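Repro:
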Amino acid sequence: MNQKIICIDYGLKRIGVALSDDRGTIAFPHKYIINENFNDAATELKNIIITENASLIVVGMPIGLSGKQSSLSIEVIKFIDELKKIIKNLPIITYDERFSTAQAQRSLIERNVKRKKRKQTIDSIAASFILQSYLDGINSTNNNT
């Protein structure tokens, strides 16, 4: 694989964005987008996808501890449906995002990042945890075949 993968951690207030390296092995936090208007957010995502030459979109799917969809899952599905109308030639898949925000929060606290800075970076870091988990899964599968 020689194209980047973009990961979206959808939130009602902010959308975290992460990118993989060109080989699809390492995830990096990219930025967050304020989620006030779908068209503005979608335009910004589309610009990132074009600029970074992304080949796939992975969207974190919030699954409850019981393994069932949550109320936010329904919002994510609506978001994906709308995103597919704007970004037509790129596959969009979902990936379980359980504990990604908590993991990102712990990571930032361990690095003594102040609360205000954590709020600014947590969404993109959570997206990078989701993406890294996805990448590790596909790369271990590819290495076992």
